[in-house]
Queue: 4 jobs
Job 1
Amino acid sequence: MTTTETKPRIVVGVDGSQGSEDALRWGAHYAELIGADLDALIAWSLPEIYSYTSRDYAADARATLTRSLQRALGPDRAKRVTVHVVEGHPATALTALCPGAQMLVVGKQGHGGFAGMGLGSVSHHCVSHACCPTVVVPGTIPR
């Protein structure tokens, strides 16, 4: 790699679900195999029915991401991940982060999925709109 080349980057979508933690494990393993950096993104937004509250939704999302990183990767590997906490729809945030990435990794379904469905709405959007190859992790990935 010359000094003008950048290290490959893998982007993983996280929402705290088992599926997103499986995607984290898969993405981290692949990143290690190719010597890539790992970016993990969680998106948050205000609830549709919102009343003024002192709740910090961004901090809640960051805490969810931190817990998922710890569970999926363990403390040492989790420290090496670049985290992104973004306000907005997860599919839009993920496709906005993927330019320049080697790959985008998402779980088959997150918290919004219905049992028995194929792809969730976020994974479907990412497969259809990402500017890099997209991997949809279908199920449990062992540690």
Job 2
Amino acid sequence: MSEEKGHNGWKNYATWGVKLILDNDEGSNEYWMEQAVRHLRTAEPIIPGCTKEDKARWNLDEQLRDEITDEVYTAIEDCGYMVSQLMGAALCEVDWQEIADSFIDDAK
């Protein structure tokens, strides 16, 4: 039995699923590409050895996590405790940095 982890080249199913949704929705994809470009333009590294691109990746990671988590929790507000807990668990599995890296790489 294989110990290989991941899904379609992504860290896991949750990460792949979120990225797939963001890529397949034209408005969403456009928005996140614009955000990646904005972060690349405006990022100011504050840690020695950190590049502008590193800072852009971290900033986009944080924005992705915050905005998508807020959107999901708002959407499931009336769905009950079990749905909320299951969605929370799924969102904890998403590798936001991997998604941010993909958008930054595409934006460069």
Job 3
Amino acid sequence: MIIAVPLCTIFLTIGFWVLFNGIRLCIQAHETKRWEPSTGEITESLMEISRDSEGDDLYEAKIIFAYSFNNKTYHGKKIFFGYSPTKDKQNNESLIDYFPVGKQVTVYTNRARPDESVLIPGIQRFTLTKVWLGIFIAFWGLWFFVMWYLFGMPAVFKSIRFG
């Protein structure tokens, strides 16, 4: 039972770290809805395949686009905030089909940093994954703590009143 406290601490720390980063990412994604729309063009659209630590294929749509903002040309590659390689080949192929080379697109540009842009503004379902993962991990840390408190805590600690 002595391992319960470090285990709780590890789960809670990792869970809240992932949750914090997920919320930060969602805030950034939400801010893109207020970014300045401009016209751009897809200059490169291809699938990159890599492997994860378990040897499974990871697919990533590499979409590069050119756009003009304040009479200056920029190049971007961010599809949306939170996008990263996945095992889902079909969704990545759909992105490549939707953004073929030469297609005229609307690019959403950060007025404060014109080199920062996205093709799809707002919070996407994929962006919320980190938030839910953080909640899930933190929940297990809290669950381990409650179980330790109820069933495994030494009697000397049970005499201490919390709150």
Job 4
Amino acid sequence: MDHTVSDIGSVPTTTQAVVLVPSTSNGRSQSNWALIVTVLSLTALITPAVYLRFFFQQVELSIDPTDYAARTKRALSQTPP
């Protein structure tokens, strides 16, 4: 179809279609995007799990090395029956 100067700015009819095709110099651009999306998705899933692990981790208070009663109590509480 030949375009003339009068066609500029005209509204396309229903028989015309505009197809946008990304130009890729190599076939790797889609695989790069898939890799980026995969890495971001895994990061979004793993980050809260790591944070919650540290949030719910029991905090051990340090015990004075010369407080034998407290050390014994802690050792017995951590030893299975």
